[in-house]
Design brief:
The protein is of the alpha+beta class and about 150 residues long. The chain is built from five helices and five strands.
């Protein structure tokens, strides 16, 4: 396991690489091991995202867990920057109940890069976020992405 870190407006983020893929993004991690070209690219893309210069991440990702977890992560990854979906919309796309989708969103191992912050409750209601700062971080990310009109 190799971890590289980046200080961002939403806190210090650690990005983990395992066997040539990004497998985790977590707040307040410490650097571990020598930074690889992939981790360097991940940090560069995250910096560009926070600077407003990147709309879509282009990194090899590996999501562990069930086929359902991977399907929910794929559905979240398909939400364009500046847009949101509800848990119900994701549930219909993957053929499972919204409550199960909520649990899978909360278990997203690579937040921000896999944009679980773009998923809202029914009627656009602001609900939890698993990253540090909770809903406040979610609101910051959505405003940063130009989805602030949804939050007024």
């Amino acid at each position: 396991m190799i971890v590289a870190v980046l200080d961002t407006p939403v806190g210090r983020l650690g990005v983990r690489e395992d066997a040539g893929a990004i497998t985790r993004l977590t707040w307040d991690m410490e650097a571990e091991g020598e930074v690889t070209p992939l981790l360097s690219e991940a940090l560069s893309q995250l910096a560009a995202y926070f600077d407003g210069r990147l709309r879509d991440f282009d990194l090899p990702l590996r999501v562990g867990g069930s086929d359902f977890q991977r399907a929910v992560c794929a559905a979240m990854s398909a939400i364009p920057l500046g847009e949101t979906r509800t848990y119900g919309e994701i549930a219909r796309a993957v053929g499972r109940p919204a409550q199960a989708v909520g649990s899978a969103c909360g278990g997203n191992p690579i937040p921000i890069i896999i944009p679980c912050h773009r998923v809202l409750g029914a009627g656009g209601k602001m609900v939890g976020f698993s990253g540090a700062g909770g809903v406040e971080t979610k609101v910051w990310l959505l405003r940063h992405e130009g989805a602030a009109g949804l939050l007024i």
